[in-house]
Amino acid sequence: MLYLVGLGLGDAKDITVKGLEVVKSANRVYLEAYTSILTVGLDTLEKFYGREVKLADRDTVEQDSDEILDGADIEDVALLVVGDPLGATTHTDLILRALEKKIPYKVIHNASIMNAIGCCGLQLYNYGEAVSIVFWEENWKPESFYDKICHNRKNGLHTLCLLDIKMKEQTTENLMKGRKIYEPPRFMTVNQASKQLLDIIQNRVKSECEKGELLKDTICVGVARVGSDAQQIVTSTLEKMVNVDLGGPLHSLVIPGNTHEIEVEMMKQFVIHSDVNLNSLIK
Amino acid sequence: MLYLVGLGLGDAKDITVKGLEVVKSANRVYLEAYTSILTVGLDTLEKFYGREVKLADRDTVEQDSDEILDGADIEDVALLVVGDPLGATTHTDLILRALEKKIPYKVIHNASIMNAIGCCGLQLYNYGEAVSIVFWEENWKPESFYDKICHNRKNGLHTLCLLDIKMKEQTTENLMKGRKIYEPPRFMTVNQASKQLLDIIQNRVKSECEKGELLKDTICVGVARVGSDAQQIVTSTLEKMVNVDLGGPLHSLVIPGNTHEIEVEMMKQFVIHSDVNLNSLIK
């Protein structure tokens, strides 16, 4: 059996009781280590589980999946995934490859940022499409996420912005020369995401403001390390968010659409600047 | 401390290790029993936890929250919630009332249908706004969910349809007479939801079909008891879904928007009618 076990978002103890039983009894256990991270490392997990856990990077999960699936028709193999295992199609793809080999699978779900973002007070049912904000490069500055946020806002919906993660980047030089030397991991902060959004706002100066359009004083919510003991949430304006220090990864940014009073009351708990006023949000 | 502990979606063992520690050590433990249900009952939970758990219905959580919050400033009180605690604003409201009384709170997240729906193979990031399909009554047949589904489809997005739950309904007679006699709980099935959607489609016969519009042969995915050992998933047409038996609650329905090949491959695993063909979904 191939088990896909969600680890939740915080530390080792955010695994479910069912998931822990699988980890303890499986023949082999892999930790998927490129789509997200916990606040604890592999050592802590191995200690908590009392067993060896192999790191599986993107190549192992996506190309060399035979290693993971080897023998899973007769024994139990577990792939641990931070958050919930089925957020992205990466793991759906692994399931399809398992099914091709007649290997049965089971998913043990857990919290992911897609539902735990409820912590900022905005109702989950009022979110539109989630967007990914990617690191801009010198010659590649996509803006599609901005338009999706505005589109959600025009429809009164909140937007969860997932911020870029670069886990095993190679410099162009190393890539060209085929050297497997990787840069240190990079995680986009709420500051960087806000800065990119402000740059887009500035590029699109218009005579009139359209409904839903983002402005530098649009209220937003920055979150860091959701679900962990070190969770931080700040409500502020997009402009001020550029300078808010939310500490280590992972960060996410939420741009509200239409808000209800109770949502605003909750967001108020996280205001840190005395001149930021949320009353404008209540219709 | 007020703890809001997510129980996940399946059975007693879907609680996290962290959540279980809280349940075992808290002074009082309540189970919120009206927004969702597990596949196991209160008895099973009490046995698994080795302690007493009080049932908290809508009145207790929403109006008589003083009972739950009583003493939570000096001792630990846990409210257990099926799925994740912060999906709906009901529990945000309880947090606000706790904060008013200077009671600190902590949320222990878990899987909810909002992320576990990834099990049907459609990528979470491509969902638009979720909709609630409510039980129609003789003189009240809202159709707004239909329009939201079409709106999502027009934008290429999938829709998760949450199906109605009636937990402590009173007949009009009992309500008028102030008798606290409640009807048995009702959970909308995928059949009922599909039937209501088909009725709307029939009501809106048009000469031309608009982009994104639902038709009786639109492919959809019915899911039941997601995350439990008794999970069932069926891909079929809306029309055929009216007669698919997915067993006991809870059910949800997914209407795909634009689909990628890998999403379609996964959906194919759940086709039960030989004349249902998903190839039309691949653009």
TrEMBL record, chains A, B:
It holds the Pfam family TP_methylase. GO terms for molecular function: diphthine methyl ester synthase activity. Its EC number is 2.1.1.314. GO terms for biological process: methylation; protein histidyl modification to diphthamide. S-adenosyl-L-methionine binds at L9, D84, G87, S112, I113, L163, V226, H251. It catalyses: 2-[(3S)-amino-3-carboxypropyl]-L-histidyl-[translation elongation factor 2] + 4 S-adenosyl-L-methionine = diphthine methyl ester-[translation elongation factor 2] + 4 S-adenosyl-L-homocysteine + 3 H(+). The keyword Endoplasmic reticulum does not apply. It is an enzyme of class 2 (transferase). Pathway: Protein modification; peptidyl-diphthamide biosynthesis. Residues 1-238 form the Tetrapyrrole methylase domain. Keywords: Methyltransferase, S-adenosyl-L-methionine, Transferase. The keyword Transferase applies. InterPro entries: 4pyrrol_Mease (IPR000878), 4pyrrol_Methylase_sf (IPR035996), 4pyrrole_Mease_sub1 (IPR014777), 4pyrrole_Mease_sub2 (IPR014776), Dphthn_synthase (IPR004551). S-adenosyl-L-methionine-dependent methyltransferase that catalyzes four methylations of the modified target histidine residue in translation elongation factor 2 (EF-2), to form an intermediate called diphthine methyl ester. The four successive methylation reactions represent the second step of diphthamide biosynthesis. Belongs to the diphthine synthase family. This is diphthine methyl ester synthase.
